[in-house]
Amino acid sequence: MSELSIEQLRERGGYVAAKAEIKSVGPTKLFAQLESTFEGGALSYQLRPSLSVDFDEEVGQISVESTYIVKIRSDEQTHITGEGNESGESLLASLELVFLGLFDLQLEEGDRIPTREEIEAYSRSTALFAIHPFVRE
After folding, report:
1. pLDDT digit string (tens) for 60-117?
2. Which residues, 6 or more positions from 125, have their beta carbon under 8 angstroms from its beta carbon?
3. By CB neighbour count within 10 A (0-12 exposed, 13-18 middle, 19+ buried), where does 122 fall?
4. Distance in Å from the first CA to the final CA of the chain
5. CA Rg, the chain, in Å?
6. How does 33-62 read in b/e, with b if 16+ C-beta sit within 10 Å?
7. In 35-87, which ranges are E strands?
């Protein structure tokens, strides 16, 4: 499903989006570690997001755990400590942010249970967009 465009994901998750309401969004893990001192130079970062989804059919709740791992590097060679790599960059800081979004499905009598594909598509589009502002803060 990861090769689908955002428009395709939103279309596939449309049924769930019409029935879901945000219950809560919040951090479950915030970790930051300074790896070395910054003495100047150009900065770069690598962001590795990941997502896990769970659907509790009994209570009609979708939980979306969004994890962001960020590595901040500098191209300067004048760091007191730090991890270098083959390109001469030095690791300045590591961050790991994990946020959990809970979404209640408002299913009425006669509504069908969404498919796993619909829930995944909703989670990778609309639910992720709902969580993202909390991560930016």
Report:
1. 999 999 999 999 998 754 444 444 444 556 899 999 999 999 999 999 999 999 999 9
2. 6, 9, 10, 13
3. buried
4. 29
5. 19
6. eebbebeebeeeeeeeeeeebebeeeebeb
7. 43-56, 61-74
